[in-house]
Amino acid sequence: MWFPTKDMMISLAILLLVLLTPCSSSYWNTQNKIKTAIHYSPGIELGPGSVSNRIYYDIEFPRGHVALKGVTAEVVDEAGNPVPLHQTYLHHWGLFRYYESKSKLLTDTRYDPHRVLHMSHSSSNSHILVRNSGICQGIILGQYYGIGSETRGTNTDIPDPFGLEIGNPAEVPEGYEEKWYLNIHAIDTRGVEDKLGCTECRCDLYNVTMDEYGIPLSPSYEGGLNCCYDQTQCRLKKGFQAPKRTLYLRYTVKWIDWNDNVVPVKIYVLDVTDTLKISDTSNIESSDHNCLVEYKVDPCNSESKKDNECLHVKRTRLPMQKGGYVVYGVAHQHSGGIGSTLYGQDGRVICTSMPNYGSGDEAGNESGYIVGMSTCYPKPGSVKIFDGEKLTLESNYSRSTRSHTGVMGIFYLLVAEQLPDEHCG
Ligand SMILES: *[C@@H]1O[C@H](CO)[C@@H](O)[C@H](O)[C@H]1NC(C)=O
Ligand SMILES: *[C@@H]1O[C@H](CO)[C@@H](O)[C@H](O)[C@H]1NC(C)=O
Ligand SMILES: *[C@@H]1O[C@H](CO)[C@@H](O)[C@H](O)[C@H]1NC(C)=O
User: Fold this and answer.
1) Which atom of ligand 2 is nearest to 340's Cα?
2) Mean pLDDT of the chain, nearest integer
3) For residues 126 and 104, what is the distance between their CA atoms, to the nearest angstrom?
4) Which of 265, 270, 273, 401 could join 292 via S-S bond, C-beta 3.0 to 4.6 A?
């Protein structure tokens, strides 16, 4: 007769345990658990040619310890109808996470566009920015979510079993609360003389010679964010009139409650204008980076046209101190952009993201605008970035008869430091 020994019983018990732990199931998914909430930003008042670039603190966002699965957004009018980009150009929106002191609450709640500049990302201020995992300096490009005109047509879903962990009470400093702020930069181009010029923030069209803080701009600065700050005005066609209107950013957040099956991902936002100020890349600090966010694409004259040189390629090499497995990648470009690729140190392609231009009139398909960017969802484990690997970011634009000002070459990367099986093992 066969009697199981005590040892065998224990092994059996362990085996059963392993089989029964949810982690061991490769079929774990969140299909039925995803929660969705649709929120509206405060009203954005815009008249023809006007610009709104504001920060809205303490916006509605999931509270508690959760894993974000995606955030999408679009500009809508008071009736909730999508507003096309040729009427209101969504230059960018950004969603930022911060801790607010419960005791040092600001008594002055008036809108102050400069307030964000006082937000620290380290010290014991009333507000502490919780920036993404890198890699620009200070609070620059520290957002969790947000892009621009391509928002409607760009997938942001984080595949199972991955998620972006937020609201972990163990991480919130004593006496602080986790909150979110939203920055929305919108340009009303109804009736303007030059729609592309207004969206590229060309200084002459805005009649701007000094930046938002009154500092004179260099004559060689043709355009960019310094010329289309809050309440600036782009030149209208003679006699054009249209009423002011109130618009909203409608944003949809998807999340699940945090649980041990979720494999955390980190967000990196890379910028093609970033140059490292140091040569020793073994111990890089955030302050060694110099992300400028925007750049200029020079015009293409008839001579360069002959030589087929109307392509503008910008590259930068960026060391990643910590690597991991790529879960998602997407680029952000402006009109004129024709694609962006992130390469590994050995030249392998980590992700290529291509713009999709609209060809019609309706919201989501506006001709001449980037209405979506293609995304990368590599099979988990198949694309790995090594610790210390120097990546190359490449952003291509087509040059036209005049310069493109204020263009961007930004790359979002979601990286998991562990794979699902490692995470559970
Ligand atoms: C442009 O700005 C200058 C100086 O601020 C001002 O004198 C001029 O009237 C402005 N022109 C237009 C068209 O608004
Ligand atoms: C960008 O241009 C370079 C140089 O011509 C080319 O090798 C690369 O494939 C282009 N990338 C994209 C995404 O078009
Ligand atoms: C965009 O509009 C054009 C012109 O009306 C149409 O041919 C095309 O199918 C539309 N694209 C999408 C994705 O709806």
Assistant:
1) 13
2) 89
3) 5
4) 273
